[in-house]
């Protein structure tokens, strides 16, 4: 398992099945497909290039489907996962610098940083924005765009990749069958503050 696990807020997924259907219906309406039973078939008949304008950089799986019926948290809580599977999880300590580039302005300001954290909360749900900002902005020169970028890259990497990967691997190790769990701890690569992961 490399760099990422679908394990964010335990109380609300990034995108629900209802959110996904609502988005599909909105696109159907904009493309003059009726909202009757045939709206999905109508969308399937459109040229794929039509959907380019609806593309977002980050996509997430939708829970409550045949492919992913329950969340990872629920699977661990109810012991509904393959506990005899060995996994090796890893992350890069600088994940955020690559992932956040499209979301950070060239000249980042303190206000941009705070707005970006609020935007992250609108996606991941349940962040204590003030607490997160306070943590990642400690010891950062607030007028230095470079330092603000580095701080946001760290936040983004922790939020998107490092913390979910670590927490998923920890749950597997905690709940795995005997003999299927080993850990090899290295230096700190992520900061896990009390967001709604566990």
TrEMBL record:
GO terms for biological process: acetylcholine catabolic process; choline metabolic process. This is Carboxylesterase type B domain-containing protein. One of its GO terms (molecular function) is acetylcholinesterase activity. Keywords: Glycoprotein, Hydrolase, Serine esterase. Residues 20-177 form the Carboxylesterase type B domain. PANTHER family: ACETYLCHOLINESTERASE (PTHR43918), CARBOXYLIC ESTER HYDROLASE (PTHR43918:SF4). Gene3D superfamilies: alpha/beta hydrolase. Belongs to the type-B carboxylesterase/lipase family. InterPro entries: AB_hydrolase_fold, AChE-related_enzymes, CarbesteraseB. The keyword Glycoprotein applies. It comes from the Eukaryota. One of its GO terms (cellular component) is extracellular space.
